[in-house]
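Researcher: Following up on the earlier apo prediction. This time include the ligand. It's fe (ii) ion, with the SMILES given after the sequence.
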Amino acid sequence: MIDLHCHILPGLDDGSEGLEESIEMARAAEHDGIEKIVATPHLFRDNLTYEDLSVIEEKKDELNQALGAENINVEIFAGAEVNISHHLLEEIRENRSYLTLHQSSYMFVEFPPDHVFSGVKELFFELMSEGITPIIAHPERNSVFIHHPGSLYELLQMGALAQANSGSFLRRYGSTVESAVLRLLQLNLIHFIGSDGHNSRSKAPRLSEAVRIAASLIGEERAKALVTENPQAVLDDQQIPDYPEPIHPEEKERKLRVKLPGFLGRNKK
Ligand SMILES: [Fe+2]
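Model: Understood. Below is the ligand-bound prediction.
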């Protein structure tokens, strides 16, 4: 499996505190069946600043060397989780190779937990004009997408993609987030499952349990694609192979309502 979203680089953000912890995270990932991890430190979040973004590449190389020495068969790739802001377009023009995932055309975009700012469609349009495909990080944790999944649907219809956290399937963020991720998955609004791992304990990088739960809803083949073929396509900078047509949430509910009277009618006979 490939974990597309993980805060495994030591000492950069609120993820791994040091090299030892990064090694333990990789060990936990290997044990879970993960072979590749894209390291995605937070960028442009709160007061978090890096003197030079090349530190991401340096830490990635350092960790790969350490994992080789420890005989841990997990390869680390460089990426980032980019906080959404009005400056994003300038940032992508200046620092594209550091903002994207493994220097592909894909970029993680993180929204704040409680709102989606009004200019987001224009921003996404401009990002896509620059050749960037935004991947919305864990939309099931954003209250707007939870209560109005139609707004997520609209961004995906523009060409954006979405990644869910494995912990959301395991009720790590509560039952509301759990219900949301299951619903988004069934509406074909989720294209990747990542761990969003932050440490080697409660938030270790693990995917297999979430994939098992997803498989019970969308089938084993499609659930596996969310942690294999789809993230591999990101690393290869190709179009993702598993892309079922997104379903508008209200459309699904409307179809259910249309079906209901006929069903009741048959019962009456
Ligand atoms: Fe994250």
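Model: The first strand starts at residue 2 and ends at 6.
Researcher: Noted. I'll compare it with the apo version next.
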